[in-house]
Structure formats: C-alpha cells, structure tokens
C-alpha cells in the first residue's frame, strides 16, 4: 500500500505474483492512493489523507490473518501512516518499508517490522522515484519472493508453480521438469520425456498447465488425481511429495 511512486511499485510487485507463482489474485492486493487511475495520472493530494488510507484498508475487510506492507520512501506519507495505524488496531502483521532514518513510520510504532534501507539524497533532490524507488523495488522483490519460497512455490532456484500458458512458459516448464526429473529419477514409462517434447507437453496439458503437478506425475508414475491429492496433503511443497514418492518406491521394492 502506498502513494505515488511507492504505490506504483507495490502494484507492480503484486501484479507479478500470479503469473510467476500461480498465486491467487485476491491473495496479494495492492492499494494505491487515488485508485487505479493514479497509476497513469498522478493524484498527489490524496496521499495527504490518513483517513483515506484507513478507509481503503477497511474496504477490504481485513482480519488478523492478513498482513499489510506500507510503502513510503519518505517515511511520513499520511495515507500510508493512517493505513498502518488501522492495520495495527485490527491486529494485522504490519511491515513498514521506508528509505530514511529516523521516520514517522518507526516513531509511530504501528509496525511489527520496519524495513528501512537508507538511500541518501537523490541526484534530483526529493525525487524519490530514483534511488529510493530502486531500493524499494528490490526490497519488495525480496519480501514477496521470500514468502513464495516459504510457501513451497520453488524447488531450489526453479519456479515450479508457474502455469505454462504461452510458448515461452511451455519451454520453461519443459526445462524445469527435465532438470528436476534428472535429479530424482523417473519410472521407465516416462523416461522418453527427456527427448520427446510432444509427450511431455501432453502431460503438462493433462495437468492443466501446472508444472508442479506434471512433475509429480512424471516422477512418480501415479495418476493425476493421486498426485494432486499428494500435493494437497503436503501443502503444495514439492520436495515433501518427492520424499513420499521415494519412500513409496523403496517400500514397494523391499515390500516394507
């Protein structure tokens, strides 16, 4: 949640999560002072209203299960301060992202965590879309990517929860599946996926474009429904499911 350049960077980061990690569109919601129209046409005055920040947050009916990242390079934008105060009152996890010390965000003590890289004076004084904006983008990338990693959306450095919805992503999906399959081994019936794009693409299509599900299918040799159940049981964490596959294979071979 933010205003001006800070708000636009928040919108950008939130917009990238669904295609990159197959995240639910309603799981990460970006609030911009002045609404979506302010993305293209600046509406500077609205950022001066603490009440607007509170109202925009309340409109989403947040609960204590939610979290709010308040982004303000200056550390004092009223719109963001009001939202952080309201979020704190409601028991949300609150994160303040600012680029100065000291800051009103830290002094008001409404944040569970304050991330405050000090970027120093801008080349053009006061133009925080420059150094502060770059630092903000990097910090948001680290926060959102870290969350996705903890949610099991990656395997090593591979984005296994992408959805193969265009030619570029289909090619990436093939590489990911083949890389991990080579690491963990394959049942003989699926060994040809290393050389046969059509066969691998057919598996991906049967899995509705889900790379993670297709991976479990080709590595385990199980049916799609069983693989989907295995992922659900393990909270979507691929590494845990692959451990189950290994155990099941060993148990079958040695009749444990």
Describe, in plain words, how this protein is organized in 3D:
The chain has 256 residues and is mainly alpha-helical. Helices cover 50% and strands 5% of the residues. The protein has helices spanning 4-21, 50-58, 78-89, 104-107, 131-150, 167-184, 197-206, 211-220, 224-233, 238-254; strands at residues 67-71, 93-97, 113-115. Strands 1-2-3 form a three-stranded parallel beta sheet. α6 (167-184) runs parallel beside α8 (211-220). The protein starts with a helix and ends with a helix. Residues 1-153 form the SIS domain.
Strand-helix topology:
Layout lengths: L3 H18 L28 H9 L8 E5 L6 H12 L3 E5 L6 H4 L5 E3 L15 H20 L16 H18 L12 H10 L4 H10 L3 H10 L4 H17 L2
Parallel strand pairs: 1-2, 2-3
Helix pairs in contact: 1-5, 2-3, 6-8, 8-9, 8-10
Short synopsis of the structure:
This protein has helices at residues 4-21, 50-58, 78-89, 104-107, 131-150, 167-184, 197-206, 211-220, 224-233, 238-254, and strands at 67-71, 93-97, 113-115. With 256 residues, it is mainly alpha-helical. Strands 1-2-3 form a three-stranded parallel beta sheet.
């Amino acid at each position: 949640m933010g205003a001006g350049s800070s708000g636009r960077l928040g919108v950008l980061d939130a917009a990238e999560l669904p295609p990159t990690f197959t995240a639910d569109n309603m799981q990460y919601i970006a609030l911009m002072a002045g609404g979506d129209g302010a993305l293209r046409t600046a509406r500077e005055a609205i950022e001066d209203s603490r009440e607007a920040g509170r109202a925009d947050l309340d409109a989403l009916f947040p609960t204590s299960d939610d979290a709010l990242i308040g982004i303000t390079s200056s550390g004092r934008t009223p719109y963001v301060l009001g939202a952080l105060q309201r979020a704190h009152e409601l028991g949300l996890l609150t994160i303040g992202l600012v680029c100065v010390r000291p800051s009103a965000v830290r002094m008001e003590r409404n944040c569970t965590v304050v991330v405050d890289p000090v970027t120093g004076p801008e080349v053009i004084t006061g133009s925080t879309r420059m150094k502060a904006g770059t630092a903000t983008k990097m910090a948001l990338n680290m926060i959102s990517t870290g969350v996705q990693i903890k949610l099991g959306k990656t395997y090593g450095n591979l984005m296994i929860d992408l959805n193969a919805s265009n030619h570029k992503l289909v090619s990436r999906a093939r590489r990911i599946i083949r890389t991990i399959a080579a690491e963990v081994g394959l049942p003989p019936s699926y060994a040809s996926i290393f050389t046969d794009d059509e066969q691998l693409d057919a598996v991906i299509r049967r899995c509705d474009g889900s790379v993670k599900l297709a991976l479990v299918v080709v590595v385990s040799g199980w049916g799609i429904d069983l693989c989907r159940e295995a992922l659900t049981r393990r909270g979507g964490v691929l590494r845990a499911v692959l451990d189950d596959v290994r155990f099941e294979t060993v148990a079958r071979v040695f009749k444990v």
